[in-house]
Amino acid sequence: MRVAITIFIFCAINIIVRAQESYTRQKITPNISMKISDYFQIMPPQQLLDRYASSRIPIAMFTTLDGGADLGINETATQWGPNDIEILLEFYKASIVNLYTEINFVQSNIITVNERQFIVFEFLGEVADESLLGGVNSIKKYNYIQYALYNGKVLLFNFNCAANEQQKWQLVAKEMMSSIRLK
Known about the structure:
- This protein is an alpha+beta fold and 183 residues long.
- The protein has one domain: Protein Transport Mog1p, Chain A (3-Layer(aba) Sandwich).
- It has 4 helices and 10 strands.
- It has helices at 2-20, 45-51, 85-99, 166-177; strands at 23-29, 32-37, 40-42, 60-64, 69-75, 102-113, 116-130, 136-150, 153-162, 181-182.
- The strands form 2 sheets. Strands 3-4-5-9-8-7-6 form a 7-stranded antiparallel β-sheet, with helices on both faces. Strands 1-2-10 form a 3-stranded antiparallel β-sheet.
- The protein is globular and about 50 Å long.
- Mean pLDDT is 87; it is low at 15-19.
C-alpha cells in the first residue's frame, strides 16, 4: 500500500513539474504574445471578480490549475512619453514599496526583452495588518512584474504566488516574462 501511494505521489509531482516546463505561445491581443505555461488556464470571470476587484478589467488573466499562482496583463489609462522609462522605474518602485509592510527586491532595473525595454521588479512582499484583538495577519507573496511603454501607455505583466511557492514558480515566471513580444 505504501509503495502504491509513493508511486502515485511521484507520478503526480512529475506531471506537475512537466506541465510547468511546457509552454505554449499565446496571442493575448493582436499585438501582444507570450509563452504561457501549460499549467495555466484563463481565470474564470467569477474568480477574477473575487480575487481582483477593480474598475479596470485586465487585458488577460491566467491562473494555475490549483489557483496558487496568477499571471495578469493590463494596460494603464495614463499617457507617458517614449523616453519616460527611467521616470517610470522610480515611480512604480515607490508605488510598490507603499503597498507592502515589508519588501525585499531580488531585482529592480531596466532590461531588454525581444529588442524592447522593460522595467522589471522581482520581489518578496509582505502585507501585515493588526487585528482589533491584537493579532497580526500577514500575507507574503513572490512577485515578478514587468512594465513596457507601448503606444503612449504602460503595459503591465504581473506574476504572483505565495512566498513559499517561489522556488516552484520563479523560473517559470522568468521564462514567461522573457518571451513577451510586442508588435
